[in-house]
Amino acid sequence: MKPLFTKGPSLGVRLLVLVVLSVALMVVDARFTLLKPVRSQMSLVLMQSYWITDLPQRLWQGVASQFGSRTELVAENEKLKTENLLLQGRMQKLAALTEQNVRLRELLNSSALVNEKVEVAELIGMDPNPFTHRIIINKGERDGVVLGQPVLDARGLMGQVVELMPYTSRVLLLTDTTHSIPVQVNRNGLRAIASGTGNPERLELRHVADTADIKEGDLLVSSGLGQRFPAGYPVATVKEVIHDSGQPFAIVRAVPTAALNRSRYLLLVFSDTRTPEERANDAAQAQEAQDKQDGTATPIIPATVPKPAAPVATPVVPATPAAATPAKPVAQPARPVKPAATAPAAAPTPATTRQGAQ
Predict the structure, then answer these.
(1) Please, which residues have CB within 8 angstroms of residue 230's CB and are 6 or more apart in sequence?
(2) pLDDT tens sequence across 215-248
(3) Beta strand ranges found along the chain (DSSP E)
(4) Alpha-carbon gap, residue 68 to 72, rounded angstroms
(5) pLDDT at residue 195, rounded to an integer
(6) For residue 128, how many other CB atoms are within 10 A of its CB?
(7) What backbone torsions phi and psi does residue 8 show, to the nearest 5 degrees?
(8) pLDDT (0 to 100) of residue 53
(9) Among residues 273, 256, 223, 267, which one has the least CA distance to residue 111?
(10) Which CA distances in Å does 187 have to 215, 219, 224?
(11) Which of 258, 137, 269, 126 shows the shortest CA–CA distance to 200?
């Protein structure tokens, strides 16, 4: 009868056999190439086991990366939206600065056409009363502004200063109901009075005869008769002319050339208060000063011209005595006749003496 459990080698013997076998395999693998095919085949089998054992780790990393990348994408999207909003705001500011630059260039171009002294002012406030058209600018009495001083923008007259403060001024616009300005039609010189209507887009001409030569599209300029606005500044353009046979005067409506409700930068005109005689004297003095400046540089040219002429004339004198006589008119152009008269008289003298000696 066989026992149920056979007794084999002890654990120590088994361990020893395995150790010896391992050492022998390591020596053979290190010294010889017999085990390379076996190792390559075993690596294929072990690769599948590595992939299976590493699968949970890779799944966990994939899920974590998916959630992490989504969070990062959401944060990056929010950041990009914020940056886009900031850039749009900057673009709007840049567009505003571009328009401001264009308006300033127009203002500078208009100031170049003005003969009087001008100064740039900026609109800083408006009158809250809807029945008055007044604005506040950032120039005042300390800047030399005076009452009644004309104010214009890049397109035409806007109004006049009616109130002074140390650093600011109040300007009454042309369209105010209490404001009037003498104008004339630029086409034919017809004079009229343009009055405000309370509408920033409209002026009316008062007491224009029904038979007056005025039509739509005529340019109205300041006539200068009120001794307040200089002559020649554009004021408005005629928009509508209504003739009524039963009325002695025509109804003439005009549109201001200045952008009364849009302009931000204005020009203060300092009129020239000099008399015509003073202007003529100042112009003569300026011309004289300019001539003096030009004269300091020009005398150098005539001073150097006669100097080379003198040495050219001197060697001619000892070479030929007859050539000395025509050299004098070159040095002294005011005496061309005397050498010509004396030359024939002096020529026969040596000739006659020679004949008498013979």
Answers:
(1) 116, 150, 222, 224, 269, 271
(2) 999 999 998 887 788 888 889 999 999 988 888 8
(3) 117-126, 134-137, 150-152, 157-164, 169-173, 180-185, 191-196, 203-209, 219-222, 234-242, 249-256, 265-270
(4) 6
(5) 94
(6) 7
(7) -100, -165
(8) 80
(9) 267
(10) 10, 7, 16
(11) 258
- φ, ψ dihedrals at 251, nearest 5°: -95, 115
- Helix 337-346 with 348-357: angle, nearest 10 deg: 10
User: Could you tell me which residues are beta bridge partners of residue 184?
Assistant: 191, 221
Q: Rounded CA gap, 129 and 124, in Å?
A: 16
Give the distance from CA 221 to its chain's centroid. 29
Distance CA 118, CA 138 (A): 15
Q: Which two tokens stand for residue 314?
A: 């001197």
Q: Across all residues in the chain, what is the average pLDDT? A: 75
d(CA 196, CA 131) in angstroms, rounded, equals: 11
pLDDT band at 202 (very low <50, low <70, confident <90, very high): very high
Tokens for 219?
A: 């340019």
C-alpha angle 149/194/103, rounded to 5°? 55
Give the per-residue pLDDT at 310.
Answer: 45
DSSP string, 19-33: HHHHHHHHHHHHH-S
